[in-house]
């Protein structure tokens, strides 16, 4: 599977997210039909490898999910995309179903075909309520997907600020580098969504180091980052200087320039 296909799967616009969840909730608000299945059939799969529990979780049918779990349905069965009932409940933000699955001791860190855990999916949607539930239940915040990204890196790339702040606050590793060599700072400065200064402050407070940025940072500064990227980087380095942490870049402001943090001088990039 190529990184390009993973990139395509990753892209979720705000409109698509809202539409997806609206459709799920419309279905979940319908009158539930309790299922009476023999205990030996509760784990039966359809042609796509999906069980009754999978569909109950997908459409937020809490009582049906409860009856299936009570009948012995395995919550960890994966479909053809390696998604579980927990992945589907997370995508639909069906909190009651998520809590049921957690109570049934489902595996919180199972990965789908893209290597994403349910926590990563929650971060992708910036669903802070689900992120909190999964984290408190014991989900690993530092699991990586097929591209080597953690939930934090996914959140920074997509501009999911609330989730990023929560993950940093609760001790996620901020210095992990993905398989493409992308760091937290790289993703924060190259996102198409605005990144607030508070995220930069929390990254530094959590022990972020510039060591892993030595490859891309000089090149991007010489090529010229976008206006947004330069502003984010400016804020980041400003905070580094205020905290008196070692930094190998010097920020040189120019009053005549419209950008908030327009210019940097490369000193001695990462020894």
Question: Can you offer a commentary on this structure?
Answer:
It is built from 14 helices and 2 strands. It is mainly alpha-helical and 271 residues long. The protein has helices at residues 3-10, 14-28, 52-58, 62-70, 85-91, 95-103, 118-124, 128-136, 151-158, 161-169, 184-190, 197-205, 217-223, 227-242, and strands spanning 249-251, 264-266. The protein has a domain at 14-110: Serine Threonine Protein Phosphatase 5, Tetratricopeptide repeat. A two-stranded antiparallel ribbon has the order 1-2. Keywords: ANK repeat, Repeat. ANK repeats lie at residues 48-80, 81-113, 114-146, 147-179.
The number of E-state strands comes to 2
Radius of gyration: 22 Å
Query: Main sheet, how many strands, which sense, barrel?
Result: 2 strands, antiparallel
Structural class: mainly alpha
Give the SSE order as H and E letters.
HHHHHHHHHHHHHHEE
Mean pLDDT: 79
* CATH architecture type of one domain: Alpha Horseshoe
Keywords: ANK repeat, Repeat
Keywords:
271 residues, mainly alpha, Serine Threonine Protein Phosphatase 5, Tetratricopeptide repeat, two-stranded antiparallel sheet, 14 helices, elongated, Ankyrin_rpt-contain_sf
């Amino acid at each position: 599977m190529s990184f390009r296909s993973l990139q395509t799967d990753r892209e979720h616009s705000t409109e698509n997210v809202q539409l997806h969840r609206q459709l799920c909730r419309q279905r979940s608000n319908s009158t539930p039909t309790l299922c009476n299945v023999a205990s030996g059939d509760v784990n039966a799969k359809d042609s796509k490898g999906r069980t009754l529990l999978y569909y109950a979780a997908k459409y937020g049918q809490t009582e049906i999910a409860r009856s299936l779990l009570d009948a012995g349905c395995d919550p960890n069965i994966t479909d053809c995309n390696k998604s579980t009932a927990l992945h589907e409940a997370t995508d639909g933000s069906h909190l009651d179903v998520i809590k049921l699955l957690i109570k049934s001791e489902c595996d919180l860190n199972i990965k789908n075909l893209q290597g994403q855990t349910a926590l990563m999916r929650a971060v992708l949607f910036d669903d802070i309520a689900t992120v909190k539930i999964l984290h408190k239940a014991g989900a690993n915040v530092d699991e990586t997907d097929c591209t080597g990204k953690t939930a934090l890196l996914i959140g920074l790339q997509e501009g999911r600020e609330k989730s990023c702040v929560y993950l940093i606050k609760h001790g996620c590793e901020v210095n992990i580098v993905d398989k493409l060599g992308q760091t937290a700072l790289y993703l924060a400065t190259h996102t198409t969504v605005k990144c607030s200064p508070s995220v930069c402050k929390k990254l530094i407070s959590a022990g972020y180091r510039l060591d892993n940025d030595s490859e891309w940072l000089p090149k991007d500064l010489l090529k010229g980052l976008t206006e947004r990227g330069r502003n984010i980087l400016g804020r980041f380095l400003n905070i580094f200087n205020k905290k008196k942490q070692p930094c190998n870049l010097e920020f040189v402001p120019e009053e005549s320039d419209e950008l908030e943090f327009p210019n940097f001088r490369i000193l001695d990039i990462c020894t």
